[in-house]
Amino acid sequence: MKISVIGTGYLGATHAACMAELGFDVVGVDVDPAKVDQLNSGVVPFFEPDLEPLLRKHVETDRLRFTTSLVEAAAFADVHFVCVGTPQQKGRLAADTSYVEAVVEGLAPHLRPGALVVGKSTVPVGTAAALRETLLRLSPAPDVELAWNPEFLREGFAVADTLRPDRLVIGTSSTYVEEQLRTVYAHALADGCPLIVTSLETAELVKSAANSFLATKISFINAMAEICEATGADVVQLADAIGHDVRIGRRFLGAGLGFGGGCLPKDIRAFQARANELGLTKSVAFLGDVDDINVRRRARTVSLAHEVLGGRISDRKVAVLGAAFKPNSDDVRDSPALDVADQLHLRGAEVVVYDPAATGTARRRSPQLTYASRLEEAYDCADLVMVLTEWSEFLALDPAAVAGKVRARNVIDGRNALDPVTWRAAGWHYRGLGRP
Ligand code: UDX
After folding, report:
1. Least enclosed by CB within 10 Å: which of 71, 166, 413, 428?
2. b/e map of 163-181 (b: 16 or more CB within 10 Å)?
3. Measured from the CB, is residue 254 less than 6 Å from ligand 1?
């Protein structure tokens, strides 16, 4: 079986390399020739742990190659995974599905008989059925099919999540398609990975529902943080206590700056837009609150910085540790850390940002900020240190050593990831979010 993977972002590049690792001959397709050249020389154009060795290994043995030609991919492969982006439309809640549509329209006329197109991108419910109709209408080849197979990988763990998924979901009504995809995922299935075979609509909804649930869980605990801040209670202890209830669970109850990235924020917005189109305005209206709570945490962090600096923010040096939306990633899409840095800069602070991986991407998005190339350079003579992305490098900081370098011992822990006891013992004025 030969495989093509269309779109080579975090999802597609990882999926392509992992398919090669599982023994398939793979071609990856992207519209960006510079990216294709990089991938063909074994270089991953973004930060994703463990991906580059895998890519290099399979590019070197010719099991994996990249091209800009959809026609070439159509002639080569039996199964085509669609991994292109579905970003939020400008000024609207809805997702832009035009890239997914363009891939299906581009592939369809050139497919081989019996070819299978498998969508992995996150799309509004109903998109896959429409794409299937397009495919059947435009493809002259007999027996082509379209299925949906949503992806649940987390950036930073993309390789592990792809090779060892915690579940597989396949939307199709065809037993032939199911068999083909069972062959693709034979490795994970042999390891006991659960498989849910369902309709196209359910498969699409599983992804929207999963990300909405995760976002709701984070915003729930951040709403509790707001209550804690007003009452002197401690949200970290609260999360520990309720998290012991196995029905609730402690994961994704990390209170702090909230969620960002290329998935959760846009997926909850796209879900609301789709529900509105379906006339179900009330069904997921709560996701508007989930979004609002999330965005309020950023404003709260800025006002906390103001408070800690005694109300005078202009010309004070603020070390912002972290720009990525989460650690082990260079992704700054909708990054809470970078938003806070931007807002402090707008209010006149001298903001110096340090991130172990995201300086390049952050500089492109927020060129007005100053970026340090070393961690020490960021906090040197700072009036306030803010940990806004919980990279392990920041959690390992020795508060006593840092204390000797700063102008004032003020620290804001935007991720509730530092140990307040050791920081306070070293003479720091420590503030977390939702903590007394
Ligand atoms: C998410 C889903 O987890 C994944 O299944 C889906 O395929 C894509 O979207 P990802 O965007 O990589 O993955 O990040 P995730 O690890 O889920 O974190 C999302 C955001 O939530 C980050 O900004 C993170 O810092 C924040 N977060 C996470 C919290 O604020 N608190 C938590 O307790 C957990």
Report:
1. 166
2. bebeebbbbbeeeebeebb
3. yes
Q: What is the DSSP letter of 110?
A: G
Which residue's CA lies nearest to atom 2 of ligand 1? 154
Question: Residue for token digits 């879900």?
Answer: 271
Confidence tier at 40 by pLDDT (50, 70, 90): very high
Query: How close is the Cα of 98 to the center of ligand 1, in Å?
Result: 25
Ligand 1 nearest-atom number relative to CA 157 = 12
Which three-class secondary structure state does DSSP give residue 399?
A: helix
**Distance from residue 327's CA to the centre of ligand 1 (Å):** 10
- Residue ranges and CATH numbers for the domains of the chain are 2-198 (3.40.50.720), 199-436 (3.40.50.720)
Helices (H), 252-411: 264-277, 286-308, 336-346, 359-365, 375-379, 392-395, 399-403
Average pLDDT score over residue span 425-433: 98
Nearest CA-CA partner of 323 in 391, 384, 253: 391
Whose Cα sits closest to atom 15 in ligand 1?
154
Within 10 Å of residue 116's Cβ, how many Cβ atoms? 24
Q: Token digits for 263?
A: 């998935």
pLDDT in tens, 64-96: 999 999 999 999 999 999 999 999 999 999 999
pLDDT 10s digits, 287-330: 999 999 999 999 999 999 999 999 999 999 999 999 999 999 99
The reply to whether 18 belongs to the active site is no
Task: List beta partners, residue 145.
Answer: 116
Classify the C-alpha dihedral 18-30-364-252 as positive or negative.
Answer: negative
Rounded mean pLDDT of the chain? 98
Put the strands of the sheet holding 384-387 in their side by side order. Answer: 370-371, 350-354, 317-321, 384-387, 410-413, 429-432
Q: What percent of the chain has pLDDT over 90?
A: 100
| Residue with CA closest to ligand 1 atom 31 | 254
pTM above 0.90, yes or no: yes
Beta strands in 37-154 (DSSP E): 64-67, 79-82, 116-119, 145-148
